[in-house]
Structures are given as structure tokens and as C-alpha cells.
Design goal:
By secondary structure, the protein is of the alpha+beta class. Helices cover 28% and strands 34% of the residues.
């Protein structure tokens, strides 16, 4: 069973290690630190272990934006990414939720299509030869605490 919840302070290293294992780089640690400080990270736990995460922010023209979505390869095609993206939708504070993916990422495109996101544009020249596709989903504004919030490690 997949449990989706807001990341706690103790999840920071787990997310960084997962990210570094999959992508081979620790360059996103500062980005994760900012997202953690803002409470904009949710994790997917399977058997108590972090197997995926979603990071959102308000960077896309004052709209909520799914900045990062990652699931460990051994746990893909099991509904984890769907659960994480739905959690981001529930947590969204704006009427529209945006995300993006490379044109080469067919799995993310299929996920967006399946969950009712619409293509909203394309950005060339971010990754050479692999344009970024922008997606949007219209949502009703909702509360920030839609995802259960575990107690801080200090509590």
C-alpha cells in the first residue's frame, strides 16, 4: 500500500539519496532545502520507505507548479506517481496547477493525459533537441493542509 504524506524533516536525506541514486547528482539539494522549508514536499511511502516524492512551488506565473515528481524505478507502474500528482492537486492553492515534462518523457505525458491535464505550451532550447511540454489542470482552490502533515521531528 502507498501512503502519501507531507515530508517531515527526517525525510530530507531520504529524498536526496533517492534523487542522487536515480539522477546521479546531488545538485538539487539546495532546491529540496527550500521546498522543505516551505512545506512543499510530499512523499510516497511503501512499507515505511520513501519510494517517491513530489515538489511544488508557486513559480509559474503565480500558479502552483509541480516542479519535480520522481518515483524509484522499481516502484513505477504501480500508481505511485498518480497518487503523488493527485496529492499535489489536493494541496494546490491556485485555480490551475501546472507541470511540465520533456517531449521524450512519454510516461509523464501519459500520466498527465490520464489525469485530465491539457497541453498548454512548449518551451524550446531548455534541453537540446528535447522540448519541454507544459501542462495545466484547472482545479478549485483548496486548503494547504489537504495532505496529512506528520509531526515535526522536534515535537
Amino acid at each position: 500500500m502507498v501512503l502519501i504524506e507531507r515530508a517531515s524533516k527526517s525525510d530530507f536525506e531520504h529524498i536526496c539519496v533517492l534523487d542522487e541514486t536515480i539522477l546521479g547528482s546531488g545538485r538539487r539539494r539546495p532546491e529540496f532545502a527550500r521546498a522543505f522549508a516551505e512545506g512543499r514536499v510530499a512523499v510516497a511511502r511503501i512499507d515505511g520507505v520513501v519510494r517517491g516524492y513530489v515538489v511544488t512551488d508557486r513559480s509559474f506565473f503565480d500558479n502552483d507548479y509541480v516542479r519535480l515528481l520522481l518515483v524509484h524505478p522499481e516502484y513505477r507502474r504501480r500508481g505511485v506517481a498518480t497518487a503523488l500528482l493527485r496529492a499535489a492537486e489536493l494541496d494546490c492553492e491556485t485555480e490551475k496547477l501546472f507541470t511540465s515534462t520533456n517531449q521524450s518523457n512519454l510516461a509523464m505525458q501519459a500520466l498527465c493525459d490520464r489525469l485530465g491535464y491539457q497541453r498548454s505550451g512548449i518551451v524550446e532550447n531548455l534541453d537540446e533537441g528535447d522540448p519541454e511540454l507544459i501542462y495545466v489542470k484547472w482545479l478549485a482552490p483548496g486548503p494547504r493542509d489537504a495532505i496529512s502533515r506528520p509531526p515535526d521531528d522536534d515535537e
